[in-house]
Amino acid sequence: MPIRRLPEGTVNRIAAGEVVERPASVVKELIENALDAGAKSISVGIASGGKTEIAVADDGHGMDAGDLALAVERHATSKLPDDDLFAIQTLGFRGEALPSIGSVSRLTVTSRADAAEEAFEITVDAGSVGTVTPAAIPRGTRVTVADLFRATPARLKFLKSDRAESMAVSQTIRELAMAHPRTAFKLQIDGHTRLDLRVPAAPDGARDNRLRAVMGDAFADNAVDVNYERGTIRVSGLASLPTVNRANTRAQYLFVNGRVVRDRVLYGALRGAYQGLIAHDRQPMVALYIDVAMRDVDINVHPAKTEVRFRDPQTVRSAIVAGVRAALREEGPRPATTMADQTLRRARAAPWLHFDRPTEAPPASRLPSAPPVPDAPYLRHPARKTEGVRDEPAAGAGHAGPETDVPLASVPEPPLGRARTQLHRMFIVSETTDGLILVDQHAAHERIVLESIKASLDKGEPQSQMLLTPEVVRLEPAAAEVLNHRAEELQSLGLVLTAGGDGAIAVHATPAILGHVAVTDLLQDLADELLEHSTAGTLRDRIEQVCSTMACHGSVRAGRVLTVTEMDALLRDMEKTPNSGQCNHGRPTFVELKRADLERLFGRR
């Protein structure tokens, strides 16, 4: 078959297939044009999910008759003044959006330039371009797209329901609104206002207000400020506390030089930043703004302009990891405000709790049965540590300490309060001035040990505890081989071992921070960890995974009886340990209940 040139209409429809995937992509292109025109207010209206009508109006600079005629021609643009594709300072630059949209719909563009006395209008119907005619419109531009994909009905069949397409349009506008917080956005769906994002009078707080309006109060109240610079790279925005997370990446918003992007390098950096702070199957919530030099990022990668390519992706990744980790580390121990609400919801879900009828006693058959009393009491109330009070566990389960305690107001209140008792040899109860804190002693100490190991590793001062005689452990051949292969890395952490034959490993020293440790269990867990992650992540990532496993073996176990001094010491160590709000597996180390939460729990509020 001979080679031939395709008709211009077919070429335009092929280009439209790259740019115009669904109504949301049309809205994205038109809003980006409005933003490039300096718009401070953008209104969007759609009908039938955008299939029958899309209207985008802005108060930007507008166009005169000559520019309007060129705007609907392919590869005509005002956004490349120097024809330099490596110094693009606008959101759009290809000059394909309007002609591509016009080739698969009925496109009408009405615009009035700054200081112009009249407006002009042009129509493109399924690729057929009309003439420029006078029109009436205030300053700015209005673009109407009717009967999308009328020229390609096969594409129309692949669109989703009106509701799904409307949700996609709404999500697109939310993302662009977060990227440009100093622009007002309004969305109407089938004549009803669904989104109205205004700009606050004080421009300094525009971004935080916009993120709160789009992502919700729960995110804004449980996020840390990220503000980090490395060379020409700046990372800013909000990142959630590790205990506030989602099952997927839908709540991760990334912006590069004001552009909404979805980039593997950036998503990988987020995983690295939260490694050891969040469970492997959970995802943090973030809204991060990455600013880089124009020549260090290529945005001319994908027709939809949602992917970018960095000149030095590793430096960008390192900046994101360092910035997020620094923000989380500086925050100190801070419980998520949502955790108290979750605790109360779970308590209210108990079948025997009925706050709507507080005066009615629950039937005896629905009351929780009392736990059996063990030989050794697991519910302990040690005396408060005050002058003249012995530091030892109380013998009785109901004794709360002497009545001559020092009043709470007479001593400074630590952030995590003061230990009052230990429950089930597993949880520490700490009293604060306005509530209480429940601490998982194993999870909390696990984080403390991990951060201690990492600190000594960063200083190059791993402390080893030599064994009187080497302890020989026999493992499966694959496990022994991976430990032998990583022996140098393990020695940098204070674990000294040598390999023998038939899967034998001789352990000569263990990390001093771990104290007395079950060597066989430690080696088996380390081998399992290394076998699972031996080909993934950087060397530093693998070392941190090994550190996490070591910390788990060296921490206070559930079931260990603690004295008041030990409990208070654990609380004080948590207060000065980075990321102490969650253990190495991403679970919370403590939950705070304010006095108001307790009153709600008992129906007093």
Task: Please tell me about this protein's structure.
There is one protein chain. By secondary structure, this protein is α+β, with helices and mostly antiparallel strands. It folds into 3 domains: 8-197, 2-Layer Sandwich (Heat Shock Protein 90), CATH 3.30.565.10; 216-331, Ribosomal Protein S5, domain 2 (2-Layer Sandwich), CATH 3.30.230; 350-356 and 414-605, formyl-coa transferase, domain 3, CATH 3.30.1540.20. The chain contains 18 helices and 26 strands. Strands 1, 2, 3, 4, 5, 6, 7, 8 and 9 form a 9-stranded mixed beta sheet that branches. It has a 5-stranded mixed beta sheet with strand order 10-11-16-13-14, with helices on both faces. Strands 19-20-21-22-26 form a 5-stranded antiparallel beta sheet. A hairpin with a 6-residue loop joins strand 3 and strand 4 (119-125). Helix 2 packs parallel to helix 6, helix 9 (264-273) runs parallel beside helix 10 and helix 12 crosses helix 16. The longest helix is centred in the middle third of the chain and has 19 residues, at 313-331.
- The percent of residues in helical segments reads 25-40%
Provide the number of structural domains: 3
Strand-residue proportion:
15-25%
Strand element count: 26
Task: Output the number of helix runs.
Answer: 18
Distance between the termini: 81 Å
Radius of gyration: 31 Å
Low-confidence stretches: 350-404, 535-539
Summarize the topology.
Elements: H1 8-19, H2 23-36, E1 41-47, E2 53-58, H3 65-71, H4 97-103, E3 106-112, E4 119-125, E5 128-129, E6 133-135, E7 140-146, H5 153-157, H6 162-179, E8 184-189, E9 192-197, H7 206-215, H8 217-221, E10 223-230, E11 233-240, E12 245-246, E13 252-256, E14 259-261, H9 264-273, E15 283-284, E16 286-291, E17 297-298, E18 309-310, H10 313-331, H11 337-348, E19 379-380, E20 418-423, E21 427-432, E22 435-440, H12 441-459, E23 464-474, H13 477-485, H14 487-491, E24 496-499, E25 504-511, H15 519-533, H16 539-554, H17 564-575, E26 590-594, H18 595-601
Helix pairs in contact: 1-4, 2-6, 9-10, 12-16, 12-17, 13-15, 15-16
